[in-house]
Amino acid sequence: MNSNSVDLQYHPHQTIRMVGHTPGVTQWGVALQNIMMTYFEVEPSKRFDTHSHESEQITYVLEGALYFELEGKEIYVGPGDIIAIPSLMPHAVRTQDLFTRAVDAWSPVMVQYKTV
């Protein structure tokens, strides 16, 4: 392989461990050079205040619900729904009364979420 290549990764589900960096949130994340996927479990009544990041973000809700606040609107994202947030767009997100599971795709990689 050349010096710009990234090695193939394989992570059997038995080897993936959830980590918690924030109270009420556990997650795992895997990344290649330019893209990343994370899986989050979020307790009810959790809020992530307004923030932005260089990474584009695509969120797919598996269970529960996320409420994204952006551009003066609140957008409900429920099971099977997807929201795609452009780079540097300010947004906040919260849960209400439901335990929530979601998958995020990021590019470029959000190094702080890489766990495997």
Description:
The structure is a single chain. The protein is mainly beta and 116 residues long. The chain has a single domain, classed as Jelly Rolls. Helix content is 0%, strand content 49%. The strands form two sheets. Strands 1-2-3-10-5-8 form a six-stranded antiparallel sheet, with no helix packed on it. The two termini are 22 Å apart. The mean pLDDT is 94.
Keywords:
single chain; 116 residues; mainly beta; Jelly Rolls; 10 strands; globular
What is the secondary structure topology, with strand pairs?
Elements: E1 19-22, E2 25-31, E3 36-42, E4 47-51, E5 56-63, E6 66-70, E7 73-77, E8 82-85, E9 91-94, E10 100-107
Antiparallel strand pairs: 1-2, 2-3, 3-10, 4-9, 5-8, 5-10, 6-7, 6-9
Number of helices: 0
Count of individual beta strands: 10
Q: Please identify the top-level CATH class.
A: Mainly Beta
What general outline do the C-alpha atoms trace?
globular
Order of strands, main sheet, comes to 1-2-3-10-5-8
Largest sheet: 6 strands, antiparallel
Low-confidence stretches: none
Number of domains: 1
| CATH architectural category | Sandwich
Summarize model confidence as the mean pLDDT.
94
The N- to C-terminal Cα distance equals 22 Å
Offer a concise description of the structure.
The protein contains no helices and ten strands. The protein has strands at residues 19-22, 25-31, 36-42, 47-51, 56-63, 66-70, 73-77, 82-85, 91-94, 100-107.
